Fold each of these.
Amino acid sequence: MHDLRFVIPGQDINREDFASSVPDFNQRSEIMKTEMGYKCAITKIVSLTEKEKLFQLRIIDSRERNIFRFKPGQFLMLELPGYGEVPISISSSNSNHEFLELCIRKAGHVTSALFTVGEGTHVAIRGPFGSAFPMDEMTGNNILLIAGGLGIAPLRAPLFWINEHRDRFLNVHVLYGVKDPSQLLFTDQFDEWEIINQIILHSIVERAENGWNGKTGIITDLFSDVSIEQSKTYAIVCGPPVMFKVVCRYLDRIGIPMNRMFVSLERRMHCGMGKCCRCMVGSTFTCIDGPVFDYWSVMNLKEAI
Ligand SMILES: Cc1cc2nc3c(=O)[nH]c(=O)nc-3n(C[C@H](O)[C@H](O)[C@H](O)COP(=O)(O)OP(=O)(O)OC[C@H]3O[C@@H](n4cnc5c(N)ncnc54)[C@H](O)[C@@H]3O)c2cc1C
Ligand code: FES
């Protein structure tokens, strides 16, 4: 495995300031030099469903482990040597400096190869990349976390954050929709969060199977279970574009301001750092200006959804 490190002493690897600045190609080339690659060991693999596994990673070098920091909503580029790199959302708590968790669906070339490796395998990560959910800005408000299918993966980091700072928020509801009950992820953890911290999970499936006695329907059917105070609510919506379009339209209709709804946009990515243009929507780089956008920005991005 080649060494991916590009280190300039004294440079800050956190690209948040950059992500919100005016596009400047010279500045972007500087970022490539300051990005780091980290060698990791896969320390644990948990099979969640037929198609999804949770990978726990540990950065091998303790010095590197100590400097790696991320914000909820950011992603990293995960390399399986010999197969390639894929962008994956960080799905663990950003206060956990020992391990990173990635919830990965088997989709194609690289992710299928990942499903064949065992614990102890070495991989590499670059990042963290992209914009984050504005957790501080949301303080003092009700929070709706809305996930469709694998959208629960990017939602998990802000969920951990809210759980760890629960007293800063009013009511917190998670609305989670999947096709059938076998696709529900992390339900044990939700039970725990509900009991300890009153983070209330509302789940719904499109097709009831295996003795499911919960709700059946689509995700917007869950809104009738929650009373929403428009002027004091923020929403994070993650899932396929068709789902967040419907959900954000609903929230807009009931009066939640568009700049208080946040989505994570997924595009094909290659470099993750504004170099290859693979992820561009118009003149916007999904990898550095996103993946987290407020709904107002998404509506103004032609062909974003
Ligand atoms: C910011 C970001 C965060 C992501 N987070 C996660 C995550 O937490 N967990 C997870 O399982 N996946 C996540 N993805 C999607 C993941 O990157 C793709 O599934 C992966 O790149 C597929 O690579 P592959 O080599 O296995 O498949 P390929 O052989 O490259 O492709 C297989 C199929 O997947 C589709 N595909 C490939 N890349 C993407 C993409 N970026 N978005 C949508 N469809 C794609 C292809 O069109 C093709 O149909 C994320 C993507 C982005 C951009
Ligand atoms: S992934 Fe290369 S520019 Fe965004």
Amino acid sequence: MLLLTLLHSIFLSQLLTGVCQASWRPVVTGLVSSRGYRGDAPDDTKGDLIEIPLPPWEEKPDEPTAIKRRRLLYESRKRGMLENCILLSLFAKRYLNTMSEKQLLQYDRLINEPSNDWDIYYWATEAQPTPEVYQGDVMDLLKEFTKNRSHEQRLDAPSLEYLEKESH
Ligand SMILES: *[C@@H]1O[C@H](CO)[C@@H](O)[C@H](O)[C@H]1NC(C)=O
């Protein structure tokens, strides 16, 4: 049942957020005719909007931690816009495994509750102030990580092979 719920939510979020690996183009060229999911720029006229109501974010207090980490890793990689695919997947690689339960919850809310991926990007880059509800140590970590002080070339999401190394 739990697995089903998980698969269901993965399927839904994949449907609703678009898939970055396959969508280097859509964000840039607008090849997609039906937008209106997470990822539209704030100044989009929404002239071609097809409303797909997003299910409201819900805390999942009964979700086992290992599954939560895996879900959040997946959700960090499958964003509505390429910039967040790269940023959040690298952030997840760096921090997800060491986050406490409380931090995982903050991160879950931060990446899944806002209905527009641009908001998350603007908060992380500090182009816009982070709303109070998303402030906290996870957001501080993300802002700091976004500054790229380690001078990483962040051109793509990391290959998942690192997960195998971690499990050894
Ligand atoms: C991060 O820093 C490196 C080295 O200064 C730079 O080449 C790169 O463009 C920076 N940003 C990203 C997003 O990769």
